[in-house]
Each structure stands twice: as C-alpha cells, then as structure tokens.
Amino acid sequence: MTYLLISLPFLILALILWVLHRNAVPRQLAVTAIVGAVLLVLTAIFDNLMIWAELVGYGDAQRLGIQVGLVPIEDFFYAIFVALIIPALWTRKGPPQ
C-alpha cells in the first residue's frame, strides 16, 4: 500500500466536509488558503530537518517519487488535510456567542 492510497480517503473526506461547510463563514476560503500556505511552509521546513537528521525515513516502494527537498510529496497531504478539516469542523459549532 502506498502513502497516496492511505492518504486519499482522508483528503477526500476533508474536502467534502470543507465544501459542505464553507458557506458558514464568508472568509473561509481566504482563511483556509492562508492557513494552508503556512502549514505547507512549516511542513517543508521541519520535515526536511527531520529527514536530514534521520529521525524519519520513507520506503521507496510506497512513495510517488516526487520530493520537495528531502520530503516526499505525500508528506504534505497531512498539512492539506488539517487546513481543510479544521475550518470545516470549527464552523459546525457556529459563531461564538
């Protein structure tokens, strides 16, 4: 099983939830984009450092082969998932009273 196949159901679920709840807050698209960009940059920096320090490693057979520095592209799926799911779940609670 590849990292893509493991991540894909979670990404699809997060995207569906985000689309269903994005109208709850008018600025949600902008907020999601900013949060996503910050998370992707932080992921690139810290994952490169962790891989360089040999704290984590990835099997070659499970990866797509596309990398950003030392980081496999699949590692960014977690940041994308969080950037989509948190605003979707947050807006389900409704605005603060």
UniProtKB/TrEMBL annotation:
Pathway: Carotenoid biosynthesis. Pfam families: Lycopene_cyc (PF18916). Its main location: membrane. One of its GO terms (biological process) is carotenoid biosynthetic process. GO terms for cellular component: membrane. It is found in: Membrane. It is a multi-pass membrane protein. Residues 2-88 form the Lycopene cyclase domain. The chain crosses the membrane at residues 32-52, 64-90. NCBIfam families: CarR_dom_SF (TIGR03462). This is Lycopene cyclase domain-containing protein. It comes from Corynebacterium alimapuense.
